[in-house]
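Duplicate of #3305? Posting structure anyway:
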């Protein structure tokens, strides 16, 4: 892709183009004016002289011709002029540029010849002056363009640098300026304040909600453990109580993960985490969604894969992708491929329409068009948000024959073979 010119270069180029245009127009007009003046002066002067000189010859007088003008008659006229019709002519005689007027009177031919080498020399000087002026104008335009561009761009560059440094809204330059730069700086300051307030509200909301949910979840988890212990001799009821306990525990983990998302990414620690156990746990969590379906549910991994990540956040990403695959696959297979620096979740479902693919990771965009599984449209947007938060990459790839394939990429760490 061809790089675009900077604003400074655009301003300098505008100066140069303006100078070239004005100088070109001025030079062309000046040259045409010189030519017109030259022709008019020579024609009028030569016509007046011709009448006087030929008149003197016709009266038998000796013509008094100027030094640069000669009057010739019949045989004295050079052969080159003899062949020309009567009238005014411009030609070269004996290596000299001349203007000549030919007239016929009483069977004789008269020629008045004026040398114009001096005029041509003057014209050359004028043309050289115009060319020099053109070159100087362009050079001045380059210098003035660069200086003016630097001066004009300085406030914009300072403002851009402050924005890039994430300077506070009160630290932005040109806030009190009354020109367009001041308007832009105040708009940036206002927008920065709004974004900071929004981010602060979002972090506080996420933290407060997660904190408030921990207490009731803890109560639910404790009650479920007590209930499971009391129903140990009743298998059917025990399974229900155990499921309640497991879901409460998993929800508590998700709440803890939301608390981590409320913190700045640079403040999070990233322990070396084995992803194999997380993937297996998430696969078991969503296995109930496959009841009544003929689906091959496989984990393909021959090595222990580790990554620097909080287990709760890795579980959110992998779990949402697995839930998406389990909900939208009615038959075929769901495969999870775990390797160094990569987790692949692939299913043989009906895939996603193009309109969904284009906005897949936006909030409130549903992952498919299956009425039975309509959700809030937040699953994959959360996946994207968490991945960006921890520095992972998530992308959707096309699967030949239908289905979806999500690929999670992260910095690879040394792996060990598993039996």
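Output from current build:
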């Amino acid at each position: 892709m061809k790089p675009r010119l900077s604003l400074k270069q655009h301003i300098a180029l505008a100066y140069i183009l303006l100078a070239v245009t004005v100088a070109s127009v001025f030079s062309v007009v000046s040259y045409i004016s010189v030519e017109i003046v030259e022709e008019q002066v020579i024609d009028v002067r030569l016509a007046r002289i011709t009448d006087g000189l030929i008149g003197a010859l016709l009266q038998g007088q000796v013509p008094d011709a100027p030094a640069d003008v000669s009057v010739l008659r019949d045989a004295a006229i050079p052969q080159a002029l003899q062949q020309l019709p009567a009238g005014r002519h411009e030609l070269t005689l004996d290596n000299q540029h001349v203007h000549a007027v030919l007239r016929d009177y009483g069977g004789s031919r008269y020629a008045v010849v004026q040398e114009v080498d001096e005029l041509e020399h003057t014209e050359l000087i004028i043309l050289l002056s115009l060319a020099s002026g053109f070159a100087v104008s362009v050079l001045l335009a380059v210098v003035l363009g660069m200086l003016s561009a630097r001066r004009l761009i300085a406030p914009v560059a300072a403002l851009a640098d402050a924005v890039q440094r994430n300077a506070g809204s009160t630290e932005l330059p040109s806030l009190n300026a009354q020109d367009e730069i001041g308007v832009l700086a105040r708009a940036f300051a206002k927008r920065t304040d709004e974004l900071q307030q929004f981010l602060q509200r979002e972090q506080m909301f996420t933290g407060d909600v997660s904190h408030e949910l921990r207490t009731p979840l803890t109560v639910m988890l404790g009650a479920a453990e007590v209930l499971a212990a009391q129903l140990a001799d009743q298998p059917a009821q025990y399974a229900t109580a155990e499921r309640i306990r497991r879901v409460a525990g998993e929800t508590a983990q998700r709440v803890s993960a939301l608390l981590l998302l409320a913190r700045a990414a640079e403040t999070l620690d990233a322990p070396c985490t084995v992803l194999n156990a997380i993937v297996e746990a998430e696969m078991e969590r969503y296995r109930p969604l496959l009841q009544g379906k003929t689906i091959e549910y496989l984990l393909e991994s021959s090595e222990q894969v580790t990554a620097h990540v909080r287990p709760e956040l890795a579980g959110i990403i992998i779990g949402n992708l697995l839930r998406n695959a389990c909900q939208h696959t009615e038959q075929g297979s769901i495969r999870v491929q775990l390797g160094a620096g990569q987790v692949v979740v692939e299913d043989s479902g009906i895939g996603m329409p193009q309109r969904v693919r284009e906005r897949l990771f936006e909030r409130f965009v549903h992952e498919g068009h299956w009425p039975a599984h309509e959700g809030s449209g937040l699953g994959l947007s959360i996946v994207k948000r968490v991945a960006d938060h921890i520095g992972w990459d998530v992308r959707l790839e096309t699967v030949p024959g239908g289905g979806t394939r999500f690929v999670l990429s992260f910095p690879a760490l040394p792996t060990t073979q598993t039996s």
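Confirmed duplicate; merging threads. The chain has three domains: 7-141, 180-261, 269-417. The domain at 269-417 is CATH 3.30.565.10 (Heat Shock Protein 90).
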